[in-house]
Amino acid sequence: MIEFFDTSSVPDDRAHWDALAARIAAAATHRDGRVTALASFAESRVSWTAAALAVAAGALLIVRTSAAPADRSIVREWTYAVAPADELARTFIGSDRPPRVDELILGRDAGKAK
Amino acid sequence: MASHDGEPQTDDPRTDAMLLAAAAGGDDAAFAVLVRRHVRAGTLLAAQYLGDRDEAEDVMQEAFILVHEKARDFDATRPFAPWLYGIVRRLAANRRIRAARRRRLLGVWRAAAGDAPAAPAPDHAVAAGMEVAALSVALRQLPPMQRACFELVALRELPIETVAAMHDISESTVRQHVFRARQALRGAVDDTRGSGRNR
Predict the structure, then answer these.
(1) For residue B54, what is the domain's CATH number?
(2) Whole-prediction pTM value?
């Protein structure tokens, strides 16, 4: 047989019950609102499509980012291929920075020859 | 019976089932009315199981979170109050079992650590006079369900049908418990008066 406690520790005035009810209602609806929002997102076809598109866009971005160095080297190769044949022009084209004086005099392989 | 001071002041004409259906449709105000309507009885019920106000209020909050989550699944042909009080009873009983387990473990730990057990709380009621003392003793000696029903009906002024739903017993059983409790308490007071006169 279960023993019962007396309830003398519980205040019994309207203000107390009003406040407790407001607190409990807010907690229940707020918590459930968050769960519902997540659940409705998971159930929605639009949200799944949007998520799939976002994943695809992310994957594309990763592929493009990782491919970028190779692309850049291809661009450089093509630049050299169509550049004028003389060493001075190739020195200007083949570098991102201004050429050194020895490169201008001896060509772009001046430093490597040492 | 006159409305108790703790009962909600403004009464929404909608039934519990209507309020719950509205809440399931996203009407938070309807849910708030439903909570206000049952928070007092539910918390008192939890307090009878747990003996602690904060724990009782926690249980009530857990119960209403469950109610809100299951609002769509509720069978509107069934009464709401017994369903709610059933949830409260289960949650409170589970919490009580966990608390008892904790106390037992704590007792074992204290015994192992060689601590003296805590002194029992003084019984303030006994010091308040012979009749009060006799009433207090008689109240403690009542069978648990008699005492629980007497407290809710006679002291907390909850309606018989609410108490019946709270403890999942029939209204006539509640009346019987309250009647017997009153008889026992009256007998205790009469005995005290009789013994006082004989001195």
Answers:
(1) 1.10.1740.10
(2) 0.60
